[in-house]
Write a structure and sequence with these properties.
Helices cover 78% and strands 3% of the residues. It has a single domain, classed as Four Helix Bundle (Hemerythrin (Met), subunit A) (Up-down Bundle). Strands 1-2 form a two-stranded antiparallel ribbon. By secondary structure, the chain is mainly α.
Length: 202
């Protein structure tokens, strides 16, 4: 069983899970921007694990199936549990933020179960892919040093819920490929670096 985890694409997926756990760790210490940096790296690993899998000439059908399930579970951890946990912490455990976190986890789970069951429609996803939840979190978190804590928390809540609605809406969203995928990864890496630099200079 553990040999599957050593398969390059699956190791990449698990690296994203590790980043998600780090995000919660940083958030519990009040380091929202470091949490955002970790979340953005989870997005990077989510974006590239499929590329790694497709370019491996030794991948078997069983490894591919395992990777599909693992990827969905990892996305629930990152875009669902990790983002939800950070929401609760940023919102000081207020019931509204706890409710939003529950909605986030459930919506992400539904989105990923649907994708696992139905796959792509041509070259489009149905619903907004959860990698954009992570990107949205990283973008909004740039406001953390410039807003009162309560205002920032509400902004993060609203932005997250808007993306979550997109996750389960019947929207046809193009799958990032080629230059689009490179752009997505580049934006996530740059934003992550900006968060880290802002923390260092603070």
């Amino acid at each position: 069983m553990l040999s599957y985890a050593l398969y390059p694409a699956n190791a990449c997926t698990l690296a994203g899970v590790a980043c998600s756990v780090l995000a919660v760790y940083f958030a519990t210490g009040g380091q929202v921007q470091l949490a955002a940096a970790a979340i953005l790296w989870a997005a990077v690993f989510d974006a590239v694990d499929g590329v790694v899998a497709r370019r491996d000439p030794h991948r078997t059908a069983t490894q591919g199936q395992f990777g599909l399930y693992l990827d969905s579970l990892a996305d629930v951890v990152s875009a669902g549990m990790a983002v939800g946990a950070v929401l609760i912490l940023v919102g000081d455990r207020h019931p509204v933020f706890v409710t939003a976190a529950v909605i986030t986890v459930c919506a992400v789970a539904v989105r990923l179960a649907y994708f696992t069951a139905h796959g792509l429609e041509g070259d489009h996803f149905v619903g907004v892919p959860v990698v954009y939840n992570l990107l949205a979190f990283g973008v909004v978190a740039l406001l953390a040093p410039f807003l009162p804590a309560g205002v920032f928390a509400v902004d993060l809540l609203v932005a997250n819920l808007l993306v979550v609605v997109g996750n389960v809406a019947p929207l046809r969203t193009p799958k990032p490929r080629g230059r689009g995928l490179v752009l997505l990864v580049t934006v996530c890496v740059v934003l992550s670096a900006v968060h880290v630099v802002m923390v260092i200079l603070r």
